[in-house]
Write a structure and sequence with these properties.
The chain has 408 residues and is of the alpha+beta class. The chain has helices at residues 15-22, 42-49, 52-55, 69-82, 87-92, 97-106, 154-160, 269-277, 282-301, 336-342, 344-357, 382-394, and strands spanning 3-5, 110-113, 116-119, 138-142, 148-152, 166-169, 172-180, 185-190, 195-216, 219-239, 245-250, 256-266, 308-316, 321-328, 402-404. The strands form three sheets. Strands 1, 9, 10, 11, 12, 13, 14 and 15 form an eight-stranded antiparallel sheet that branches. Strands 5-4-8-7-6 form a five-stranded mixed sheet. Strands 2-3 form a two-stranded antiparallel sheet. The structure holds zinc ion (ZN) (2 copies).
């Protein structure tokens, strides 16, 4: 069964934001010192051991897929709200813009007039559910007073404000009494039950199309379109003071499917056999490598851990081999998986280094554990992940062509 780790949480630790924050001190020619306080995550572990990754490299390129209709549509609507869009404007938005504008016109979000395309709605463009699948979100409402605490996007609602969840809002604790997806509302009641909740999700991933493939000796790396199906199936209750698990309750929520893009790699059957003969926990190794790879990707793709998710399997039906997937968490893909594909040897070597340089014995939040793992960080194998990555990366030293399977 695949192990899943959707949308790992974490604040941004991109180099550009790091430099920006450091730059706020010592202006007007005055001296200043900036201190990086490393957190328990694989990226900070790597930076502490490899300061050249901060000081020796230019600020990362911004990653964006401008042809993704899910990226393009809100931008076109926002632009049309400012000034009607003209044919000349569309050229600035790239070759995909004309088709997206036609779709928005069909959906009556834009209207064609002589002077161009007009935004037809009164509300803000971002609030109109332009993303098509995202919808307007779920409102979090205090049951007794009817007070609106906030709005949460629907995918997050399944794991953050499901019935029975403990929800924190500006330092206050609430218990969710009911999540009603049909009415898009989560009813909450103030009060601290003395425990926290963590949703467990199962995630399945199907390959729709492989767009690129690179051979790394016996191992291989792909980039392509995938369908990610996620379903929150239960939640754990943990005592707030100790973190001890005190119970698990089932959830009855529908699965959600995300069409997005992913990078994935697989080792050969022979490589797998070699690792198995050495007694390596293959599922734990793949899962641990996946967590750490997600943690390190922000260094290479300019994303947050929020933006990406992963699936790993000892044997995955898409490849018939031990496989690790890292996918873009945004509908249509946001360009992070593609960037990961192109920087994969450096990215996965850094992942290996972050795991091996961590001083813990069996894995910790600084290397292979993930705060938002859909499987409660089970199973994980730190030594297994190092051996698996060594096996995978051995082939990158051979010069193999990177071939495009299909362009579109
Ligand atoms: Zn996980
Ligand atoms: Zn560790």
């Amino acid at each position: 069964m695949p192990v899943t780790c959707p949308r790992n949480a974490g604040r941004s630790r991109r180099r550009c934001s790091l430099w920006q924050q450091a730059g706020r001190a010592g202006r007007a020619g005055a001296g200043a010192a900036a201190v990086l306080v490393a957190r328990d995550d694989p990226l900070d572990t790597y930076l502490v051991h490899h300061p050249e990754a901060v000081f020796g490299r230019p600020v990362e390129a911004t990653v964006l897929d401008p042809d993704n209709p899910y990226v393009l549509a809100p931008h076109l609507c926002a632009a049309a709200k400012e000034l009607p869009l003209t044919g000349a404007d569309l050229e600035l938005f790239g070759p995909a813009a004309a088709g997206v504008v036609a779709g928005l016109t069909d959906r009556r979000l834009l209207r064609r007039r002589e002077a161009g395309w007009f935004w037809t709605r009164r509300e803000r463009t971002a609030a109109a559910g332009i993303r098509g699948t995202g919808g307007p979100g779920v409102q979090i409402v205090e049951e007794t007073t009817g007070r609106l605490l906030g709005t949460i996007d629907e995918p997050s609602a399944h794991t953050m404000v499901h019935t029975g969840a403990v929800y924190l809002h500006r330092g206050d604790t609430f218990l969710v009494t009911e999540l009603d997806l049909a009415d898009r509302v989560a009813l909450v009641r103030a009060g601290d039950p003395g425990y926290t909740t963590t949703a467990r999700q199962i995630t399945e991933i199907d390959v729709v199309a492989s767009l690129r493939k690179a051979s790394w000796g016996q191992a291989a790396l792909w980039f392509g379109d995938v369908d990610v199906t996620r379903q929150a199936v239960s939640y754990l209750r943990r005592r707030t003071a100790t973190g001890e698990v005190i119970g698990e309750d089932r959830l009855c929520l529908p699965p959600r499917t995300l069409r997005t893009r992913a990078v994935w790699w697989a080792i050969s059957t022979a490589q797998r056999g070699k690792l198995a003969r050495r007694g390596i926990d293959l599922g734990g190794a793949a899962h641990a490598a996946e967590h750490a790879a997600i943690g390190l990707l922000p260094l290479f793709a300019g994303c947050d851990r929020w933006d990406i998710g992963g699936v790993s399997a000892e044997l995955h039906s898409a490849t018939g081999r031990l496989t690790v997937f890292v996918y873009d968490g945004h509908e249509g893909g946001a360009g992070f998986a593609e960037r990961a594909y192109h920087t994969a040897p450096a990215w996965l070597a850094a992942t290996r280094a972050a795991i091996s340089s961590c001083e813990c014995a069996h894995g910790c939040p600084s290397c292979i554990q993930s705060p938002k793992c859909g499987n409660g960080n089970e199973p994980l194998s730190k030594p297994g992940a190092i051996e698996l990555l060594d096996s995978l990366l051995a082939g990158t030293k051979q010069d193999m062509p990177d071939k495009a399977l299909r362009f579109h």
